[in-house]
Write a structure and sequence with these properties.
The protein has 365 residues and is α/β, with parallel strands linked by helices. The protein contains twelve helices and twelve strands. The protein binds fructose -6-phosphate. It catalyses: D-fructose 6-phosphate + L-glutamine = D-glucosamine 6-phosphate + L-glutamate.
Length: 365
């Protein structure tokens, strides 16, 4: 049931404050201000390497998880798209934990990657939305993302719930490994508790502006998304969402890679969507933005209040989110990115829920 919404995708975007609070409530103990204790048989202090395999949007949530797990749990994370992972013959030791992220739990390449790791003796964990799925059944430990049924082919709420779960797991791993102090854990868990409220606020605040921007964006044939740190996978997610449902060619790049190639494409016909909360990387991303501006690229600047104050560049549009801790930004910044793809599809008249050539679960290789 779509409720008052035109498409499932729109409904699922607006479901996010509620469903992410379920995910966070399961994996964090907000009363104790720490990540939740779990009896899934995994002890992160006994693990020396984490490997992740997934496809599409699930792969991109894993990539953001890698930044968090390496930073807070000091655990090296190796991640690959499952279609490559399954044939790479990755050497695996028995202190490797292998995680598989899949909304449907049925993706053929992700399942094959899981089977490979099991054969090699790794401990396996499945981050799934569909808990009765094959991937959930075959993994040693199951972590439900609790997003509720996702009908729209383009993944939205599953992505942010995957992020909520990865964020909580990173904190738990940090505690178990002794790399995260109780004070830091408390502060980060508190930040997570703010996500649902910030999401509701942003969903309502940015909607009219994004609708207007979608009209402008629909005239272009190519769009580039840039970001640094956790905003880099988010840039790739923005590009994936746009190309899936609007058929506009889009690419996501690490902002620092701009001068290693893509800058050659920049002219007045190239909109560049820059995702830059006012974090450790902000100044560097702004200098990339200046390089775009100097070549007449059309900038869409997605930032927060501090970021908007700190940059004086002329942009095609600046979307301003509230200030928030760096840790939770990927979850909240997902919203303008999803809405932008959605409204562009609606404006262009493509089918947002059922994009051509795509299926919700890819059960063949
Ligand atoms: C993107 C999208 C796909 C899926 C991918 C993995 O919006 O929906 O890229 O994320 O096919 O699917 P699951 O998570 O079911 O393994």
């Amino acid at each position: 049931d779509k409720g008052n919404h035109r498409h499932f995708m729109e409904k699922e975007i607006f479901d996010q404050p509620e469903v992410i609070s379920h995910t966070l409530g399961r994996y964090c103990d907000f009363a104790a201000e720490r990540s939740a204790v779990a009896d899934d048989g995994i002890d992160f202090s006994k693990i020396s390497r984490l490997t992740i395999a997934a496809c599409g949007t699930a792969y991109l949530s894993g990539l953001i998880g890698k930044y968090w797990i390496e930073r807070y749990a000091r655990l090296p994370v190796e991640i690959d798209v499952a279609s490559e992972f399954r044939y790479r013959e990755l050497p695996i030791s028995d202190d490797t934990l292998a995680l598989f992220i899949s909304q449907s739990g049925e993706t053929a390449d992700t399942l094959a990657s899981l089977r490979y790791c099991k054969e090699q003796g790794a401990k396996t964990g499945a981050l799934v939305n569909v808990t009765g799925s094959t991937i959930a059944r075959e993994a040693d430990a199951v972590f439900p993302i609790l997003a509720g049924p996702e009908i729209s082919v383009a993944s939205t709420k599953a992505f942010t719930c995957q992020l909520a779960l990865m964020a909580s797991l990173a904190l738990r791993a940090g505690r178990e490994r002794g790399t995260l102090s109780p004070a830091d854990e408390k502060e980060l868990v508190h930040a997570l508790s703010e996500v649902p409220r910030l999401m509701s606020q942003v969903l309502h605040a940015v909607q009219p502006q994004i609708e207007k921007l979608s009209r402008e964006l629909s005239h272009f044939h190519h769009v580039l998304y840039l970001g640094r740190g956790t905003s880099f996978p988010l840039a790739m997610e923005g590009a994936l969402k746009l190309k899936e449902i609007t058929y506009i060619h889009a690419e996501g790049y690490a902002a620092g890679e701009l001068k290693h190639g893509p800058i050659a494409l920049i002219d007045e016909n190239m909109p560049v969507i820059v995702i830059a909360p006012h974090d450790r990387f902000f100044e560097k991303t702004v200098s990339n933005m200046q390089e775009v501006a100097a070549r007449d690229g059309k900038i869409v600047f997605i930032t927060d209040e501090s970021g908007a104050r700190a940059s004086e560049l002329k942009t095609m549009q600046t979307i301003v989110l509230p200030d928030m801790p760096e840790f939770i930004a990927p979850m909240v910044f997902s919203l303008p990115i999803q809405l932008l793809a959605y409204h562009t599809a609606v404006f262009m008249g493509t089918d947002a829920d059922q994009p051509r050539n795509l299926a919700k679960a890819v059960t063949v290789e």
